[in-house]
Design brief:
The longest helix has 14 residues, at 173-186. The strands form two sheets. A six-stranded mixed β-sheet has the order 5-6-7-3-8-9, sandwiched between helices. Helix 3 crosses helix 4 (143-155). The protein is built from seven helices and nine strands. Helix content is 27%, strand content 25%. The chain has helices spanning 46-54, 95-100, 115-127, 143-155, 173-186, 199-202, 226-233; strands at 6-17, 20-31, 35-39, 61-66, 78-81, 161-165, 191-195, 208-213, 215-220. It has one domain (6-233): Rossmann fold (3-Layer(aba) Sandwich). By secondary structure, the chain is α/β, with parallel strands linked by helices.
Length: 246
Amino acid sequence: MSQNKDVVEIDQVGFAYDGDLVLEDVTLTVRQGDFLGVVGPNGSGKTTLLKIILGLIHPLRGKVRVFGQPPERARHLIGYVPQHADLDSSFPISVMDVVLIGRLGKAPRLGRYRKTDRQTAEEAMQEVEIYNLRSRRFGTLSGGQKQRVLMARALVGKPDLLLLDEPTTSVDGRVEQDIYELLKKLNEKVTIILVSHDLGFISSYVKHVACVNRRLVCNPTNEITGDVIEACYSGPVHMIKHKCEL
């Protein structure tokens, strides 16, 4: 994949909720092929940053461009994986049907999904290794399986940028490692921005880390020092390198 294009350009962006400043003077460039991890304490503005990139909210000041366009015009080029499944677990919907939701806007407005939509959904499920679950009821899946379904739903639209908001919060360490290994593989074809609370885990996978705590500092992972972490979290933080038993 070529890596000479700017996918996301954020220039001196500020944002506030009810007058409370959440982001201040945030400047960030994400290039094609990057795998960016966004970390920071709770309430630091990480999810707000994703919403701005998606065009769901607009900054008070500053400029945002996604693929050279205003974010809301580039939304069809973005896949989004939320922190939690936005589906009622008791609702009788199959994995295939959940994944096909990602084709809305690309499928015909009236009528049933086309054969090509179903083929694309099958390809996305194979890519995230859940094709064998396609007929299962979504609500019966484990946390890790549900996250893979949500990833397939995001990928079925053939995005050029994949945004993930703490996708491993509800899974154990082994499943978390599996998901990050999958994302590393997907990064060969798609640019990724991942919000995480776990710098120690993601540092083995991402290429750059953006530390957000109202302001932003972006570094290659091999330049993340204790001073950078303490500045981001406003105090001492111990990085723990996770190790999963195989």
